[in-house]
Design a protein that fits this description.
The chain has 360 residues and is of the alpha+beta class. It has helices at residues 5-13, 23-30, 57-60, 69-75, 96-101, 107-117, 143-149, 193-205, 229-239, 278-281, 312-323, 340-359, and strands spanning 36-37, 45-46, 87-93, 123-129, 135-140, 165-167, 187-191, 213-219, 226-228, 246-251, 255-259, 263-267, 293-296, 305-309, 327-333.
Length: 360
């Protein structure tokens, strides 16, 4: 029996598991069906139920339904807990301009810049600031666009004034539907594990608009946060800081807040777990196992990026960006020659996230 959006509501939304990744809406909109849409706050909803084809694709592409996972695991050679990998590197950008804006080593931005410079992509879906803190997905088609978007994609400091609800998750996949009728046919996308997971499901099913995604650059992801004004005040009291003092945020072994006056505040993930989005607590993927390349600061020294090279496609674009001088390495490891400290940290965070998801 084919599953429908009604089943998605029952199996995912009503259980509080919807991650708002936008995969279901992206397909429905790209296919000119238009039965569902993203809500201003919360899971997607019907906008025109009569248009629903009851095809089931919205259900199948959802990363929380686990449909197609076995096929994807076989295709990508998944080995628990961090997936298949070819190399793990520690590197940084060679661009001073990018380095000054980047949270870690600026490697994601530099690889995207390499892809644009060599006409391998028409654009990249990333996020940019809109206002003092808020981030929105947008299509970057130049180095200037990429630099504007450089930095952490997590955002604890989202517009403090005038908002009743704060959500650090950016629905990047929803931008894909806007590109379907454009002339842009080669796109790179930077996303969290649930977003990349949904895209891989669409590609497995050969449905729109996943065919335009040529490169997937995944971010390490432990948690995103959702909280109201009362929660914000509670966080300020518990951790002794003010949101309007936050200038920058980074995710490494813990949450690092750079505050005004050159002050730094470290917050453990376990201490902030109560403010996490429920869907994040149900997600078992820390290291973005289905991406071509996975990135994060974990394991590398400050101002360097840890990169997991997973696929032949990922290896090709990373190695070419290195060869062309867009990035420089300080370390490179293979499965037979690996720094136990870096690998150990990635495995540890991955195992803890898997355990948290199972318990949830």
């Amino acid at each position: 029996m084919v599953k429908t959006f009604e089943d998605l509501i029952k199996d995912v939304h009503e259980k509080g598991l919807c991650g708002e990744c936008g995969g279901c809406v992206t397909f429905c909109s790209a296919g000119d069906i238009g039965a569902i849409m993203m809500s201003e706050s919360g899971p997607p909803k019907y906008v025109n139920k009569d248009n629903c084809k009851e095809c089931g694709f919205c259900y199948y592409v959802c990363p929380q339904t686990h449909v197609l996972n076995d096929l994807l695991n076989d295709k990508f050679g998944y080995v628990p807990p961090i997936g298949k990998w070819i190399n793990i590197t520690s590197s940084k950008t060679t661009s001073e301009e990018i380095a000054n804006k980047a949270t870690d080593g600026g490697v994601v931005t530099s690889i995207l810049n390499y892809l644009l410079d060599h006409d391998l992509i028409d654009g990249a879906i990333v996020c940019k600031k809109e206002g003092p803190f808020n981030r929105v997905p947008f299509l970057a088609t130049s180095k200037e666009d990429l630099i504007q978007a450089a930095g952490s994609y997590y955002d604890l400091s989202k517009q403090v004034i005038g908002l009743e609800k704060y959500n650090t998750f950016i629905p990047t996949n929803t931008k894909l539907k806007d590109l379907l009728n454009s002339d842009l046919l080669n796109i790179a996308i930077v996303g969290t594990p649930c977003q990349i997971h949904s895209i891989r499901k669409m590609q497995q099913l050969s449905i729109l608009p996943a065919h335009i995604v040529k490169y997937t650059l995944g971010l390490f992801c432990n948690l995103n946060f959702s909280f109201n004004d009362d929660d914000r005040k509670k966080m300020e009291q518990i951790f002794h800081f003010k949101f309007n003092e936050v200038e920058k945020m980074n995710i490494r072994e813990d949450i690092v807040l750079n505050l005004k006056g050159n002050k730094i505040k470290h917050i453990s993930f376990s201490d902030i777990n109560e403010f996490a989005r429920p869907a994040c607590r149900a997600c078992p993927d820390f290291s973005n196992i289905y991406a071509d390349l996975s990135f994060g600061g974990l394991g590398s020294q400050e101002k360097y990026t840890t990169t997991i090279i997973r696929t032949k496609t990922g290896a090709e674009i990373y190695n070419n960006a290195l060869k062309e001088g867009y990035i420089k390495e300080v370390n490179r490891f293979s499965p037979s020659n690996i720094d136990s400290n870096i690998l150990g940290k990635i495995i540890d965070f991955s195992e803890r996230k898997i355990e948290r998801a199972e318990n949830f």
